[in-house]
Amino acid sequence: MNIIRIEAPDDPRTAAFRDIRERDLTGREGLFIAEGEVVLRQLVSATSRCRAKAVLLAENRLDGLADALGQLPPGAPVFVAPQAVLDGIAGFHLHRGILALGEKPEQTALSGILAGLPERALAVLACGIGNHDNMGGVFRNAAAFGADAVLLDRRCCDPFYRKAIRVSVGAVLRTPMAVGLDAAAAVDELKGAGFRVLAMTPSAELTLDRVPPAPRIAVVLGAEGPGLPPDLIARCTPVGIRMSGGFDSLNVGTAGAIALHHFARLA
Q1: C-alpha angle 129/113/190, rounded to 5°?
Q2: Interatomic CA distance for residues 203 and 207, integer angstroms
Q3: Cα–Cα distance for residue pair 87/82, rounded to 1 Å
Q4: Is the pLDDT of residue 181 over 60?
Q5: What's the pLDDT band for 245 if we cut at 50, 70, 90?
Q6: Regarding beta strands 196-200 and 149-153, do their DSSP bridges make them parallel or antiparallel, or are they unpaired?
Q7: Which of 167, 179, 155 has its CA nearest to residue 104?
Q8: Are strands 2-5 and 31-35 parallel, antiparallel or unpaired?
């Protein structure tokens, strides 16, 4: 391991980790910050689609992470600092004591994603999801229930935002994805690839438990509140979730989890 001791918050070697919260909002030109042990282990694992560039640790975390750090690319620096110095670099108290700098995977066109999917496949198309907690939840659910890809329209937030990665427990780092899509064109392309495209909406007459099974299913999710635009729903098969107690909608993460679990169970 390439261990480098850091004694001051302004050490130029840790510039990529400085003032994390402010820089989360402006992006890092193809790089991202991952936080916490679970996410670090996902980043360096064989299933990761991303490459670790550097790690910054509180000194008391070094020994317990030796196995994970041994999976870093050759020469990748492991910066180790006292907790106070680490907090000074990050700009807030970093109680997990673990940060990693990663490189995003190359963007893949939707056609390339679809061409690589198996004959039986489950996909998620997220439209207009701007909340990073919800974005992380979408990826966590997709990984938990075996979705083969997550597709994001151009109105979605960046899934590589630090909080989204953390909420996803690292699933963002290993899930095949296409981003920046035109939602209507993506629905048409999914249909052309043999997918039954289901728009999750409370207004649907067809409920999830009555959807006939199909070898290829794409679940379309919209933002909480506005939901999916009517013209997009019209391109899909609208589907709702049977509820009681006067409720007609769920958190997008919950609705997505129910739908994905349902179709994963039928696969």
Answers
A1: 70
A2: 10
A3: 9
A4: yes
A5: low
A6: unpaired
A7: 179
A8: unpaired
Q: What span, in angstroms and rounded, lies between the C-alpha atoms of 25 and 7? A: 27
Residue that the structure tokens 């899934």 belong to: 159
Residue 162 burial (CB < 10 Å; 0-12/13-18/19+)? buried
Amino acid type, 170 = G
**Residue 22: its pLDDT value, please?**
64
Question: Please, what is the Cα angle at 90 between 17 and 9, to 5 degrees?
Answer: 85
Residue of 163, 105, 104, 109 whose CA lies nearest to 139: 163
Residue 142 — φ and ψ, nearest 5°? -60, -45
d(CA 248, CA 250): 7
Q: What is the mean pLDDT of residues 19-33?
A: 73
The end-to-end CA distance of the chain, in Å, is 43
Residue 247, burial from CB neighbour count under 10 angstroms (0-12, 13-18, 19+): exposed
Torsion over CA of 114, 118, 119 and 123, rounded to 10 degrees?
A: -60
- Return the CA Rg of the chain: 20
Angle, CA of 100, 90 and 253, to the nearest 5°: 65
pTM to 2 decimals? 0.92
- Compute the distance between CA of residue 140 and CA of residue 137 in angstroms, rounded to an integer: 5
